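Tokens help. One example:
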Amino acid sequence: MQDSKFAKGMTGLIHHPYTPPAGFAAPQPGVFKASTVYFPSVADMRQMEWKDKSAYTYGLHGTPTTYTLEERLCTLEGGRQCLLVPSGLAALATVALALLHSGDEVLLPDNAYGPNKALAEGELHHYGITHQWYDPMNLQDLASKISPRTRLVWLEAPGSVSMEFPDLPEMVRLCRAQGVWCALDNTWGAGLAFKPFDLLGDGSGGQGTLAVDISAHALTKYPSGGGDVLMGSVITRDPALHLKIKLCHMRLGLGVGANDAETVLRSLPSIALRYAAHDQTARALAAWWQAQAQCVQVLHPALAGAPGHAHWQAVCEHTPGTGLAAGLFSVILDARYACAQVDAFCDHLKLFKIGYSWGGPVSLVVPYDLAAMRQSWPAHLQRGTLVRFSAGLESAQDLIGDLSQALQDHLPVL
């Protein structure tokens, strides 16, 4: 220990002179927790700039831990700038609040993530921002709804719950031609099934690359992987657009905890392995469901015949047989089963837990009232009760056994 005139008492503890030696290296980056950040001098304080990550000014504006996570997420998705927010929904809201003003309009697919639709109907409407829903499987419907008031178009691939995969490249081209921002909820793709900033998969990354303007990602799902962290990200490639969102992010006072950032950093190296395992299990379960008499339709974009399968192939399967998909799929059960029977089936699953979210190690199930979530029943979907499954990391055969016992006892063949 170095000598100090404050060596004794609390002052000595608070102003301790010891500094650990530099050069420590380990598999995981350090965790820096801070609200206050020290400056060497007033002059240094006044010239420090947090907007370009060249310095640190306040914990809310970034630490080595959050900067590191942001840069790695950019690598994952192919972006250049990243902002961290407290949840996936916060990512969607930050984009909307940064880009939309009273008198503007936002377009969302009718199969959008429910809370994003609720945001448009609630807060955005309250602020004088209008919205319309468009049919994600009908490019002309989207084109007909873009007006001079339209500033932002949300895309989802695939859609929430009903899992349709839209024609992403053509939608992006349409938004480009109309001069409106397009933002993608990329939670399902996770930067692995496809790259939102390189939709054609040519890897060029140049000015002519077909890319969305913004990728919003619920890091709660696959980047975390444990079902125990809430976090989101907003990734861009345009510095001016990034700064516009970043300033709104700052004014809203959004930040994430260092330990949550650490948890995501620890999980990122295994995300590709976990994603592939979820994918493999989900496909096995989806194929099993296709053979069950109680099921009238399986909704999984990687399955031939599923809504938007050809679009999934075009974006996710540039080389035949190599396409990836998340561990998420839905089934539509015969309409002759009462909702109470479907609920009982879900209640009696043992390995599948009833719960929202996905991307964690435990398989999940949720029945949905799809008719209440859509403007009208989609023509490409069979009538019945929709049940969504998230495949965890359990054995596929064990999960099939669980489905079999609950199906046999509560949804007998009609």
Q: What stands out?
A: DSSP finds 13 helices and twelve strands in the chain.
